[in-house]
């Protein structure tokens, strides 16, 4: 980079101090990893027979309350 461009770049205000560069990206990355882990746990729980039966019972109960008869999941 030429000396003139370096001089101009050094005088431009920065959005974040140099120590904070990339901090937001790292926070988003940690959030995404945590969300994926939480999603994996939910998938494992919902695949279990106990949870599937509980969800089916809940859906059937809601359908009966709505007046829909004869539907069994």
Keyphrases for this structure?
0% strand, mainly alpha, 3 helices, 73 residues
Overview in brief:
The protein has 73 residues and is mostly helical. Helices cover 68% and strands 0% of the residues.
Describe the 3D structure.
By secondary structure, this protein is an all-alpha fold. The chain contains three helices and no strands. The chain has helices at 3-11, 23-46, 49-65. It is rod-shaped, with a radius of gyration of 27 Å.
Largest sheet features: none
> What percent of residues are in strands?
under 5%
Number of strands: 0
End-to-end distance: 68 Å
* SSE ordering: HHH
Q: What level of helicity do the residues show?
A: 55-70%
Tally of DSSP helical segments: 3
Shape: rod-shaped
Low-pLDDT segments:
none
Query: Which structural class do the helices and strands define?
Result: mainly alpha
Radius of gyration (Å)? 27 Å
């Amino acid at each position: 980079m030429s000396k003139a461009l370096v001089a101009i770049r050094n005088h431009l205000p920065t959005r974040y101090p140099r120590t904070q560069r990339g901090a937001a990206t790292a926070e988003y990355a940690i959030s995404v990893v945590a969300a994926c882990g939480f999603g994996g746990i939910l998938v494992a729980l919902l695949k279990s027979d106990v949870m599937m039966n509980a969800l089916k019972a809940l859906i059937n109960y809601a359908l009966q309350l709505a007046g829909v008869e004869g539907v069994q999941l």
